[in-house]
Specification:
Elements lengths: L3 E7 L4 E3 L9 H11 L3 E5 H6 L10 E5 L11 E3 L2 H15 L3 E3 L3 H7 L5 E7 L8 E2 L9 E6 L3 E3 L2 E10 L7
Parallel strand pairs: 1-6, 1-7, 3-4, 3-6, 4-5
Antiparallel strand pairs: 2-8, 7-11, 9-11, 10-11
Length: 175
């Protein structure tokens, strides 16, 4: 069975970004993200892709980009035009590669892809940033999501954070 997960860094208000950028860059979180996604598949929206370095797909991953623009093209990425098309394409590639699938943003992509996901890997930051305009679904209030495990507290500069792994009790089977 194909496994689809969400991966994100959120603040204490479940915010994920401001003006198409992340709220903070924690070096160890970047390592965490790479550990999970390298060699696997990531699904992102067009604006999230354009926020990556150089606006290019992340290396050593299969990048699936969702956009409504039928003429959109980006080298070394699979461009799709709907959530359903993204899920189908990701599953096909996953089965060919024996790879996991990670939904990696932005807000609307997380909200629409959540129905297909069975896991969420969250870097939870114990700080609420003053400015934010994009939010992750608050899993503590979402039906079916349960905190399975969490790391020891960590610190970057004056920011305290931890890694959390949520699982969906009622799993949506993808075949």
């Amino acid at each position: 069975m194909t496994k689809m997960s969400m991966i994100a860094a959120v603040d204490a208000g479940w915010a994920i970004g401001y003006k198409n950028d992340v709220l903070i860059r924690i070096p160890e979180d970047r390592v965490f993200f790479r550990k999970h996604t390298v060699g696997n598949i990531i699904i992102v929206g067009r604006r999230t892709l354009e926020s990556f370095p150089g606006g290019l797909p992340l290396k050593d991953r299969t990048n699936i980009v969702i956009t409504s623009n039928k003429d959109y093209y980006v080298p070394q990425a699979v461009v799709v035009h709907s959530i359903t098309e993204a899920a189908i394409k990701a599953i096909q590639i996953s089965e060919e590669m024996s790879a996991d699938i990670y939904v990696a943003g932005g807000e609307q992509i997380y909200r629409q892809m959540e129905q297909y996901c069975t896991d969420a890997y969250i870097t939870y930051i114990y700080h609420k940033f003053e400015h934010s305009d994009a939010f992750f679904p608050e899993l503590t209030r979402q039906r079916g999501w349960v905190l399975k495990e969490y790391s020891d507290l960590k610190c970057y500069e004056d920011i305290i954070y931890e890694y959390r792994h949520y699982v969906k009790e009622t799993r949506y089977e993808i075949s």
